[in-house]
Design a protein that fits this description.
binds 5-amino-5-deoxy-1-O-phosphono-D-mannitol; 13 helices; 5-stranded parallel β-sheet
Length: 353
């Protein structure tokens, strides 16, 4: 039931603060120790020399963020693969691989195909899914819940942030990290709430930047490049505005030729190491006529940025940076008079290959 909301998508965007709290409550005890992950999972992953994350669409994008936690916090090399590619073009594997399947529905046929292949090869598997009684959770060796609650809108929102959080918690449980993740997640929840409270800001951005546009860009570097892919998918999937998301450094290698007078270019800027470079790239597209809309984090902000995000641990910034993109996609679609929850040609769960 979507209650007072006009669309499920908006309700599900708003639920993300609650989901972050739910996950912290489920996976940590009052002392801040991890309790929600069985030792079987940890012990098995610790024997692995490499993690392979397999997923599709938004879940694949969540995996691109998760990779950073497994590498930075758990110190395990991690590859992220598109399920439909991996299924028929399996790369050379490491000696002791461990497979993580990420899925909202747990029914995605492309991912199921990979799971079947991997099981035949005898490697250990874990599914992280929102629907716990699903094919992918039943058929993997281990399963962890995403606890986002039912996601009805075709455009995935809360499953994305929840999948990122579960990966962060899992990676944290495997390593020896200084950060108090439970406390940091509480902060994330507060800040997600603060961003979703500013809907009018994003409605105004969507209406001024995207009205009458048929193409748009999201750029970023590092983790922001990963979020840019998800931001672009969100916008194109429901508004039908052709949107490319990519690593900002790639602009000069071809895509910059697409920039015209007024082309909207959204820049996500939350990573200190590359902020200066990204500022340069924003200036380059602006010089070619782009309408640049920069979404930055507080300590990296400049006065003319379109929106300044509150700050949490830099590795967790994707959880905040994606929220404006979800809301901008929502309002751009609304402004076009389209059905936000049910974009053409798409199904919520893609059960065919
Ligand atoms: O249920 P899954 O997470 O396995 O689904 C994967 C994709 O089909 C899904 O994320 C799709 O890309 C969404 N419509 C994106 O909003």
């Amino acid at each position: 039931d979507k209650g007072a909301y006009p669309y499920y998508m908006l309700k599900e965007i708003d639920e993300q603060a609650v989901v972050a709290r739910t996950l912290a409550g489920h996976y940590f005890n009052d002392e801040g120790e991890i309790v929600g992950i069985g030792c079987g999972i940890g012990d098995t992953i610790k024997q692995a020399d490499r993690l392979y994350i397999i997923a599709a669409g938004t879940s694949y994008h969540a995996g691109l963020v998760g990779k950073r936690y497994f590498e930075n916090w758990a110190n395990i090399p991690t590859e992220v693969h598109i399920a439909s590619e991996f299924a028929y073009d399996q790369p050379l594997l490491s000696e002791h691989p461990f497979f993580i399947f990420l899925s909202q529905s747990g029914e995605t046929a492309d991912s199921r195909e990979v799971l079947d292949n991997i099981k035949r090869q005898g490697f250990p598997t874990l599914t992280i899914a929102n629907v716990m009684n699903s094919t992918l959770t039943r058929e993997a060796d281990f399963a962890l819940p995403v606890l986002a609650g039912p996601e009805i809108a075709v455009a995935s929102t809360k499953a994305y942030t929840a999948q990122i959080i579960v990966q962060a918690i899992l990676a944290y449980s495997l390593g020896d990290v200084e950060l108090d993740l439970k406390q940091e997640l509480a902060k994330v929840a507060v800040e997600i709430q603060a961003i979703t409270d500013e809907k009018m800001t994003f409605q105004a951005i969507a209406e001024s930047a995207l009205q009458n546009q048929h193409s748009a860009f999201y750029i970023g570097r590092g983790m922001d490049a990963a979020v840019a892919l998800e931001a672009a998918l969100k916008l194109k999937e429901i508004s039908y505005i052709q949107t490319e998301g990519f690593a900002a450094g790639e602009l000069k290698h071809g895509t910059i030729s697409l920039i015209e007078e007024g082309t909207p270019v959204f820049a996500l800027l939350t990573q200190a190491k590359t902020a200066g470079l990204l500022r340069g790239e924003v200036a380059q597209v602006a010089a070619r006529g782009a309408n640049t809309i920069t979404i930055s984090s507080k300590s990296l902000a400049r006065p003319d940025d379109a929106y300044v995000l509150p700050e949490v641990d830099e590795l967790l910034m994707p959880l905040l940076a994606v929220i404006p993109a979800q809301l901008i996609a929502y309002y751009a679609t609304l402004a076009r008079g389209l059905d936000v929850d049910r974009p053409r040609n798409l199904a919520k769960s893609v059960t065919v290959q």
